[in-house]
Every structure is written in C-alpha cells, then in structure tokens.
Fold this protein.
Amino acid sequence: MIGICAQFTIQDGKAAEFEAMLTEFVTTVKAKEPGATVYQLCKNAKAENEYFMLELYADQAALDAHGKTDHMAALVAKIGQFLAGPPKLVQGPALF
Amino acid sequence: MIGICAQFTIQDGKAAEFEAMLTEFVTTVKAKEPGATVYQLCKNAKAENEYFMLELYADQAALDAHGKTDHMAALVAKIGQFLAGPPKLVQGPALF
C-alpha cells in the first residue's frame, strides 16, 4: 500500500466552489478506482481555506492509474484557479 | 468522520526502533479501537527519517477515546526520545 497526504490552501472566497468541484472528483474516484482504498477530503479545523486529502492505494499500479485518469486530468486543468499556492504532498509506502 | 495527518521527523539512527514501537502501537489501535477506521503509518519516500500517519475516526467520541487510551499514554511517554522535533498535525472534519 502507498499513502499520501495532500494539503491545499484555497484563495479567499473560493472554498464553496472548491468543495463542490472536489465532491464530484472524490465521488468519481470512489466509484471508478477500487485501488484507491482510502480517498478522503478533510477540512483543516485550525486554518481557514485549508484542506487535506488522506489517500491510500492498494499498490503502485493503482497510484499510477489514478494519475492517468480522465477525471484527474480534468481536475488538474481546473484546480489552479482555486489554489493560493502549490499543494503540499507527503507520499510513501504504508508500513503496517 | 474526522481526519488527521500527523507527520514525524525522527532523530538519525532511531528509525528502526521507532518503527518497532509504532508497529506495536498501531497493532493495538487496530485491535482495540473500532472507531479508528483508518490508522496507517507511512514512510515519507522523499525525506529520510520522516513518517506520516493517516488517521480517520468514525466520530469525535472515537477520537476523544483514542486520546485517553493506555496505549496512547504509553506512546506519549516514550516517543519524545525518538523525535527530532514536534510532530506536525492537520486535523478536521472529513467532508465526503
């Protein structure tokens, strides 16, 4: 398994739109990608406009496939207009 | 649901001991805490001595209970000797 935590900071006033876009995206991931065993968007309770995504993939192939999906390409094309800065990512093998 | 990503930086030379301690701890969480629906330690593939924990709790009660367990108290008493700095935490409600 491979784990990722991705953190996003959103521009002021764009949280609702961002959440709507991510609702659709996460719903698609959960429906189409059985290898994405955990895919959970959370709101940072201590920081306005900050979100984080908890992700677990069954294996490297599932992660690779995730990166090549049409819905990921569509998200990447749109997400920039919401971000206040580059996402922060930690990624690596799940130990146990 | 409530999500947490906790990031740890470990002192040089202590990774193996840290992993052994966390193996025991995570195994206990998974065995004793059904409200901890995801509890996954991962190694940061891009940074030596860095780990992150992906955590999801069924509700606030599960998170509160987690904080009051004997195994958490035991971990808190031991973990300081391994850390190169304070853990970094993001926490908040899971949106969907």
